[in-house]
Amino acid sequence: MGAIVHIGYHKTGTTWFQHVFYPAVRNRNYLPRRTTRAAFLAPGALHFDPAEARHILGQDRNRAILCEENLTGGLHNGGLAGALSKDVAHRLHAALPDADIVIFVRDPVSAIGAAWLQYVKGGGTFGLNRYLFGRDRLSPVAPERDEAPGFRLEHFDYHRLIAHYDMLFGPDSVHVFRYEDFRTDPRGFASAFAARFGLEIDLSQLDFDTRNPSLSRSLLWLARGMNLFTRRAVADKSWLIHIPGWYRLSRRLLRRANASGRFGRSLRTDDLMDGRLAARLRAHYAPSEAMLAARLRWQTQSDRSGTVVRWRQRH
User: Fold this and answer.
1) pTM of the model
2) 279 preceded by cis ω (within 30°)?
3) Between the CA atoms of 229, 69, 193 and 28, what dihedral angle is there, to the nearest 10 degrees?
């Protein structure tokens, strides 16, 4: 038995797995996020020590479950141009070579809309286009490109990071799931997921409600306005004046307002971007999505036949 390491991606239900599902597993030990972050994200790239990481995880690490979406890299900085995303994979393999890797992916256009909403929830003030393409206004040699990395479209080219984990751990130890399958039938998905990894859990005791709901249109504008009075917590934003304590208070008020259901329905992807932008993004991700579809077909075939097919060589 090796550890189960759920690395994300962001905006694919990791909050629910962290708060509801994994803590309820009886035959595995779910480690807190702070433990996972201390072991694999806190050390610098040149200071990481696999032995120290194993010590932080504890003696029962081979029965552990880790779930931390930032193992795929920061949502708003593209995993530092993928450098952190790639390096963390090597850290995990050095410390836990027998682990099973769990990766959830989401339609990239939907993921981008959810990422911008999360940016606003986290204190952001810019609109969607500025959030996505703000780096394009910079000179190719502008210091901001290196000092304060911004959002990167390639962060959601999922197949590249999946292929990297396949290379390190072997494709039969890397398990890829679509977030949409989980959202369509949470209970059925959770049952199959538990069976796949031999997890003992009483699904009847779980709360399947959404843990991180989207904002309504009115609350989205209200949040962007409130964010002008704090410099927290995202790097790429504007503010008029910083009021100490305002960020925490405004988040609390926003969560309560959102939970009340009195401010309209939650925004969907087509509410956030026009058809022209959506078409541009879908064209950008088409090659990556084709590779991802091939990887998922291989996984389905492998599950049924018990054989390993080198999907990258076939497609």
Assistant:
1) 0.92
2) no
3) -110
